[in-house]
Specification:
nine-stranded antiparallel β-sheet, alpha+beta, 23% strand, single chain, ten-stranded mixed β-sheet, 30% helix, 663 residues
């Protein structure tokens, strides 16, 4: 603990924050009860890091985290600790991610300042990359107290956090404020343009604008809040818009443009951030709820980075708010698919079940290839050097940009303690339907540009396998999209800007040709299934083993090509499948089946059609063979085109052609 005499100026780099009154289900992300020693991790590192068995997890969490009392949260920055109780701030939002500051900034010395009222103790802890908890310092406090702890970041090369606990005596203790500081610098703080791309989610957009207006302290360095509205349901038409606009004091601007997808909206945000002289563009999705303090944390961290660095926030599940989607992502270079940075990491970690101090893998620093554009801060210095997003409409634009930035020498950091709540992928299935075109095409474009392997590694093989799965699953509309993606890919990159606003309407216009693309609200809207329990007599069909997969696939495709579906299958489905049971190796046994969608909002009728299967299988085989032959030539074309199609001039022409009058 330091002396009270100040010898230099200090600047706050992270404040203790607490949840707003309408989010009691997020308390575990901010504060929890119980001492650090009471839940110390076992030193059996392998078991602690990878508790695969349920009984191992139960043993680890048997002394589990306890919820802090929600009614003890006094303000956004203060809370009461009840007599005889202990509260830890070793939590996602309030522990200090020391290893990230150690790795990416020049900061080596920090201090913790804790202001309290009442009697009790303040104890500081740290962890290492293995998640082991170590006591650093502590002090007894009485009355109005300011406790200052000077701390070093040098031991945090591979991972680790700092945090503090409060323990109250018989009279109770109140945390008035807590903050982490470092030596102040002479340079100005970075200015940021905060941009939200939206498509018919005006309620979400206005809610986030309202959250920002209610937290004006986080907007100090926000030059402009920009909403790129690409929908028909306008944010400006929402009830309460005028009041929120006025509360933001002239910082809110709306641009209405045609639907150019996420890449078109985010590229507009990047473009405008450079044009208005901002240091950063902060990109936000529309279907989120933002933790406003994250804005300050991202900008502060980026200001201290040794060189321009993309800094992203994490994503929590909007409908299960203590659940983290992932702690960081990389791109598997052999398959060009998102992957986890290390084997210990788990997706969908629930902090209400196991807090930060109970979860060793959360203490290892995670280095990433990209951060999702649900929340991502991009320095305009990076944008000026490598350009804007590729015109991909949706899917793979964020990953491709991260890979492009890395190749130019700019790192991406997924920053703990900065996050949004976002609609979970669990309630979506964007590998089928109209989005399948963009998934297939943009993954291949990313592979052509960035794959270090001949012929793109395993991507072509997986692409063809995916087509076969869709075909035996009677997902002919999805497969039509895949085939169109291959055809367009083979044309080269020249018309990516031209089709940016037209491709989606073209794809949607095909829905009427395919029963599997036609959604009805209720299964009773379809004919009742015939008597029976499906083609397998109700037997659960499992995934074929790797040894059986190829023979099974050949047999299944041959059966679907040769054997005509029964005439009654066009009149009545053979059964009904919930979305979770909609697996290609199960659906392939049906001639006709009704399948619900991922959102639970409706269902479609899948009907087997050997003619469609034969024609599409022939075409995708031909296109994949052509793509294999022309791979090297196409790779050169796409790589050489990146600078042009991501340039300010190219995007300016697209914006001018697609911006609504008056904007």
């Amino acid at each position: 603990m330091s002396a009270a005499v100040e010898t230099k100026d200090w600047a706050t780099i992270q404040r203790v924050i607490l949840p707003s009154a309408d989010q009691p289900d997020t308390v575990s992300l901010y504060a929890d009860a119980g001492s650090a020693s009471g839940i110390r991790l076992r030193e059996n590192d392998e078991l602690a890091r990878t508790p695969k068995l349920p009984e191992d997890k139960l043993q680890m969490f048997s002394s589990g985290s306890q919820q802090a009392h929600f009614e003890d949260l006094l303000t956004r920055h203060s809370m009461r600790v009840r007599s005889g109780e202990q509260i830890s701030f070793g939590t996602y939002f309030n522990a200090f991610p020391a290893s990230y500051w150690r790795r990416w900034t020049s900061v080596r010395d920090i201090r913790l300042v804790v202001r309290t009222t009442g009697t009790g103790t303040v104890t500081v802890y740290k962890s290492n990359a293995r998640g082991s908890v170590q006591r650093v310092d502590g002090v007894h406090v009485d009355g109005d107290s300011t406790s200052v702890f000077e701390l070093s970041l040098k031991p945090f090369g591979d991972g680790g956090w700092y945090w503090f606990d409060l323990a109250a005596s018989a009279d109770g203790l109140v945390l008035e404020s807590g903050q982490w500081e470092t030596a102040a610098t002479d340079g100005p703080k970075g200015q940021v343009t905060l941009e939200i791309t939206t498509m018919n989610k005006p309620d979400f957009c206005l809610n986030n604008a309202r959250i920002l207006s209610e937290n004006p302290d986080v907007l100090e360095n926000v030059k402009e809040i920009l909403i790129v509205d690409q929908g028909t349901q306008k944010v400006e038409d929402e009830p309460g818009f005028a009041a929120v606009r006025d509360a933001l004091g002239g910082k809110l601007r709306i641009i209405n443009q045609a639907n150019l997808g996420g890449s078109g909206g985010f590229a507009r945000g990047m473009y405008e951030a450079v044009e208005n002289g901002s240091d950063y563009a902060l990109l936000l999705d529309d279907d989120i709820v933002v933790e406003p303090e994250s804005i300050v944390r991202l900008v502060t961290f980026a200001d201290h980075c040794r060189k321009p660095t993309i800094v992203g926030g994490h994503m929590f599940d909007l409908y299960n708010r203590s659940v983290l989607h992932t702690f960081g992502e990389v791109v598997d270079p052999f398959r060009i698919v998102p992957a986890l940075p290390h084997a210990d990491m788990e997706t969908r970690h629930d902090f209400s079940v196991a807090n930060l101090r109970q979860t060793p893998w959360l203490h290892r620093r995670v280095d990433v290839d990209y951060n999702g554009w649900w929340m991502c801060l991009i320095p305009t210095a990076v944008i000026k050097e490598i350009g804007l997003s590729l015109p991909l409409f949706i899917k793979w634009d964020d990953a491709e940009y991260g890979l492009r930035a890395r190749e130019a020498g700019f790192a991406t950091v997924s920053m703990p303690g900065a996050a949004v709540w976002h609609v979970s992928w669990i309630d979506k299935d964007d590998l089928v339907g109209w989005q399948a075109y963009f998934h297939a095409r943009n993954r291949l474009i990313t592979t052509l540009i960035h794959s270090p392997y001949p012929k793109g590694g395993r991507v072509l093989r997986e692409s063809f396998q995916s087509d076969v799965k869709h075909l035996v699953s009677m997902q002919y509309f999805t497969e039509h999209g895949h085939i169109e993606a291959l055809r367009d890919l083979l044309k080269g990159p020249g018309d990516l800007h031209e089709v940016l606003g037209t491709k989606l309407p073209e794809i949607n216009a095909l829905k009427s040709q395919y029963p599997d693309a036609q959604l009805k609200d209720d299964v009773d809207d379809f004919p009742a299934p015939k008597i029976g329990r499906g083609p397998m007599g109700g037997t659960v069909v499992g995934l074929p083993s790797k040894k059986q997969l190829i023979p099974w696939g050949i047999k299944t495709v041959a059966r679907q090509l040769i054997k005509a579906p029964g005439p009654e299958s066009a009149e009545r489905p053979q059964g009904y499948l919930a979305h979770r049971d909609n697996r290609w190796y199960r659906v392939a046994h049906y001639d006709s089946v009704v399948v619900s969608n991922a959102e639970g909002t409706g269902a479609s009728w899948y009907q087997r059609d050997p003619k469609k299967l034969k024609a599409m299988l022939t075409e995708t085989t031909r296109l994949h063979a052509q793509l294999f032959r022309e791979w090297d030539k196409l790779a050169r074309q796409y790589r050489s085109a990146v600078a042009e199609i991501s340039s300010f001039d190219a995007w300016k022409k697209t914006f001018e052609a697609n911006t609504k009058d008056g904007d």
